[in-house]
């Protein structure tokens, strides 16, 4: 097995077999509800970065993947920076999230569109059941860092979210984050 290490102070992974992917604001600005504000964002700004460790081939039944995500603080208009969000392609696959740093909102949506959220703060643990789309918004003023563990055959369905979105958004209202149902 390749050697990796987890820095439990920072929440970051290290090792030659750790892969990284990132998304810029320009790549995902279509997700935000205020498209006028989205048209004026710095497109090259890195919104989030994911490190992941995949000791078995993607799609393997019975394996586990591990990842760390860092989401920068900020907003597009009144909407907090967030990840794209996804259902798992194998819908019944679950996942753990655990927060290291920052303040976040884990949006959870069932297959009928009902959307709720769990507050993320340092040390918080989140069990994401199957059949539940998940997206994370950084509702704080510092980078949000969390780790994830998920089955290696879960896969990703981003398309459903691109097409239909979540049932609610994390928006700033009177200086505070509020879950606002889709109008
Ligand atoms: Fe997932």
Quickly describe the structure.
This protein is mainly beta. A hairpin with a 2-residue loop joins strand 6 (75-76) and strand 7 (79-80).
Can you characterise this structure?
It is a single chain. The chain has one domain (5-181): Jelly Rolls (Sandwich), CATH 2.60.120.10. The radius of gyration is 16 Å and the shape is globular. It has helices at residues 25-28, 35-38, 159-164, and strands at residues 5-7, 12-14, 19-24, 46-53, 64-71, 75-76, 79-80, 95-101, 104-109, 115-120, 125-128, 133-138, 144-151, 168-173, 176-181. It has 183 residues and is mainly β. The protein has three helices and 15 strands. A six-stranded antiparallel beta sheet has the order 3-4-5-13-8-11. Residues 86, 88, 95, 134, 150 line the site of fe (ii) ion.
Which features would summarize this protein structure in a list?
single chain, 183 residues, mainly beta, 3 helices, 15 strands, 44% strand, globular, binds fe (ii) ion
**Morphology call:** globular
Annotated CATH architecture: Sandwich
Strand content is 35-45%
| Attached small molecules | fe (ii) ion
The CATH homologous superfamily name equals Jelly Rolls
Order of helices and strands: EEEHHEEEEEEEEEEHEE
User: How far apart are the first and last residues' alpha carbons, in Å?
Assistant: 49 Å
- Could you describe the largest sheet, including whether it forms a barrel? 6 strands, antiparallel
Structural class of the helices, strands and pairings?
mainly beta
pLDDT < 50 runs, ≥5 residues: none
Number of strands: 15
Q: How would you write the strand order of the largest sheet?
A: 3-4-5-13-8-11
Indicate the radius of gyration in whole angstroms: 16 Å
- Which percent range fits the helix content? under 10%
Give the total of domains: 1
How much is the average pLDDT? 96
Q: Quickly count the helices.
A: 3
* CATH topology type: Jelly Rolls
The CATH top-level class label? Mainly Beta
